[in-house]
Amino acid sequence: MPRSARSTAGSIALVFLCGLAIGCGGNSGGRVSGKVTFKGQPVPAGKVYITPDSSQGNSGQTGFADIKDGAYDTAAPGGQGAVTGPVVIKVDGTSPTPPPGAAPDVTSTLLFSGYELKAELSGSATVQDIDVPADVAKGSPQQPARAVVVP
To answer: Where are the domains of the chain?
Structure first.
C-alpha cells in the first residue's frame, strides 16, 4: 500500500475512533451529585431527575441518578449527566422497609413522590443538596425549594 494511502487510512481510523469515544460516552452531560434529606434524615432510596427548564429557554437531555443512603451522583453506574443552566429537579423517595401490615409482595414504602425544585447548574460538576420538606408526604409535592448549591 502506498504511503499516502496508509496515512489517509490511518487518519480515517483515528477520526472514527475519536467519534466513538465522544459519541458513545454513556454518561454525557455535567456531573451532579449531593445529599437528599427528608424530615432531617437521609433518604434511603429513590430517584433524582434533572430536566432542562424549558420555561427559561434551556433544552437538552434529562439527567438522572439513584438515591442510595441519602446520596446521589449522576456519574454513578445507572446515572446520566445533566445539562447546565436552569433546570427542574424532581425527587422520589422510598424506604426499603414495607409499611406495617403490608401485603407480602410489598417490599418498600413510598416516602414522597414528585417533589420539585428549580436550580441553576453551572460547570461540569455541581453539588446540589436537596432538603425535602416534611409536608411533601401529605400530598403537596410542589413546595418552595430549599436547595443548597455549592459551586
So the answer is: 27-150
